[in-house]
Input
Amino acid sequence: MASRRAFLRRSGIAMFGIGSSPLWLQRAMAVNSSKKILVAIFQRGAADGLNIVVPHGENAYYSGRPSIAIPKPGAAPASAVDLDGFFGLHPNLKALKPIFDEKKLAIVHACGSPDPTRSHFDAQDYMESGTPGLKATRDGWLNRAIPQVAGQSPIRAVSVGPVLARTLRGNNAAVALSSVRGFQVQDKKAGDDYMSRYAASVDTQLKGTGRETFEAIRLLDALRKTEYKPANGAVYPTGRLGPSLKQIAQMIRADAGLEVAFADIGGWDHHVNEVGATALDGPLAGLLREFGDSLAAFYQDLGPRMDDVVVVTMSEFGRTARENGNRGTDHGHANVMFTMGGAMQGGKVYGPWPGMEREQLYEERDLDVTTDFRDVLSTVVQRHLGQPSLSKIFPGYQPKSLLPIFG
Amino acid sequence: MNSKAFQTQHLVRTIAVLALLLSPLAARNSKKPNEADAKFREKLAKEKQGEHALSRLSFGPRPQDREKLRKLGLKKWIELQLNPTSIPENPELLEKLAAMPTLLLPMEALLVQYPTPQILTAFAAGKITPPENPELRETYTRLSARYKPRNEESKSAAELENEANQKAAAERRRRIGVMSTEERNGILRSTAPQQAIAGELTESKLYRAVLSERQLHEVLVDFWFNHFNVYLDKGADHWLTTAYEREAIRPFVLGHFQEMLLATAESPAMLFFLDNWQSVSEAPADRPRKTQSKRPVRGLNENYARELMELHTLGVDGGYTQKDVQEVARCFTGWTIEEPNRLGKFKFNERVHDKGEKLVLGVTIPAGGGIEDGIKVIEILAKHPATARFLSRKLAQRFVADEPPKALVERMAASFLKSEGDLKVVMRTMLNSPEFFSAGAYRAKMKSPLEVVAAALRATEAKITNAVPASQAIANMGQPLYRKQEPTGYSNNSEEWVNSAGLLARMNFAIALSNNKINGVSIDKDRYAEIARSTGAPEGQRR
Output
């Protein structure tokens, strides 16, 4: 962590100075509105990609999941929303269909990691570090994806939640916050006292984190003064993801200098009764409603600003192709990823489809991986963030080719 | 240039490029171990050793603890902590715990006195006998109103009831922060019994952390509960978690690991949390099938088997395969719960057990077995060298440093194997090691939110009348007690607790505490305001 602190020191930000309007603030307010922003969303617990973007054209999908498959489009009151005659969206993702039709949503199916682990913990770790199979990586790909430039906004990288996501740990300063409104020291005098105590600390780790914290508080002070009203009639659902995306939208629309943001939504580990009496019931359906409606609200809220924003979603691995003994699914392999943004060439399900017949499955049980998740992330990092050097962001890896999701 | 020279040059270039590519990773990793190893060989100054022991083996020193340790001597103090039953418990703590009846109730009684929605539904439908106790019967009648079968009349009655309940609930929420534990739980018992269970469990955790004289024991209960984590809000676990900690964790933390492993394997809370209670043999010929039943045919569920090896014993690199996961899952078929919502008792269901032969980590488990198949698996895993190493490393990570010295872990693992998993012996190996009392370990760990709050309340001799608001502060810092959803438990790597949101929550907690603004907690401001404030300062973050 030493180099991160050193970098901060070099950057010469007047973080503990009083009065003067720091350079980054002026810069953030003036220039930042054209900056590209990447929002990464993690579905923790290994979401069932096959029931999210449903391969309704596959017989084996239906034969392997007699009680939890999502019915073919039109086959039942609650059935898949057709996308292209072969794939369909889970009915609770119907809010995403118009975005798909506008070609601002691209889907990549059968994505995953070359590492075969079925451990939630390891797989999440690998996906957040961007180095499958390598546990020693201390920083995350999203942190490495931020250009190392001095004098930037203290909230250029934000992880929404009470702890800093693993993918945002690293050399670049990054801030964890649960809500814009709550991000302040309750007592001004005590706050000033803490600020000088952290500044004077010999504990380099705490000194650096303290500095980032107070910088961010100062920037967010301006945002707190007015209550945030989503634009274009957008309504964020309650739960975890909706409020998180709302915070992110607020920071984007305030031109506060956000460059990358991370949010997560847990609870996808459905070993038992994944689907209820219809596709609209049960734990998966509930989560998907929150997931789809949150993304749609974010898209609506940002309106034309989506031209500068890409949202990418991921989950550590997929689930078994066939249902298990308890109307649930066990840990599997390939999964589905969404990318959404004004610059997308969407309206299509990308990625070679491996098929679901027994001999086509990975270890005869899971959907096979045909697209490395790093291909999707590399494409976004290079085409959207304009980061030329992928080898630093995904060490030891070069994508075969960038995906055509940006046209 | 001859081809060999070319090849060499090419190779050198390739290595250089690779090194460059990996340099951001390598730079940080290469430098650390040597530096750190030297620090673990550097002996901690004598005057710091007592403070170090208090900060690691307890939830932080109270003013009188330093004096106590000085009088006893460090060695004797540690030995006492390793033998908690020889330490008289704090009467104040016993009094607090005695006011929380759910902590001691056997499962069946807990379910009768704090009924689940299923029980109330059954009661409303007249399917169970009303409780004899008139007060309880009255509570059942009142609470079951909202579970009555739906017809127009009862619906409107239920709606009226609901409205009244909502008003009462709003009033309760307003007052609940300021009333005493006893008063609050009394109200909850008759209005929202589920909340009383969760409230008493989280409160008792904080009371024990702050008030217990058997500090190391409490630290270890926290460690092992987290190791065998279950999630309070997953269905029936809301009722099962209290007994789980009391019966499957608490008695074993300084005992034999294999006994704790078996106790957790048989515990309804774990069987429910990791879905094993529904896992049955895949060979349908073994059991009668209700052909008329609408319920789908059940089968194997791998969830418990996988976490048992990855998280509870061998560790993810412990050398097991997907095949082992399936075979272990087969061994545990039939390990289930008798009526999870009514009785919550462990049961082995012979009829759904897979009686075929299994091969687990190279050991053949013969066909025709019953409950002994699972017990055999427990035994194999508890005695496995990978388990010894995995658990030793995790303990050293908790008590010594995030990256504990390998040599220490190896010695602890050897103790584990030699003593057949006697956790007291393993702890003693660690506590007698030079690495534990080294400069490398001193203040190397960041406090978890529970540790931050408990340490602050101990250091300020806070009077607690209701620990719910303080436990809410812990949740705000990112560690809701008993509510870690993932089976991994909270991270043992303390670096993960250093971030802006966490620091801010700590500062705000410290400010509130120093101003006596936390409901249910009060301190002597004249004496302790500055100590309370230091909880949010840099010096309050490490232990």
User: Anything to note?
Assistant: The longest strand of chain B covers residues 335-338.
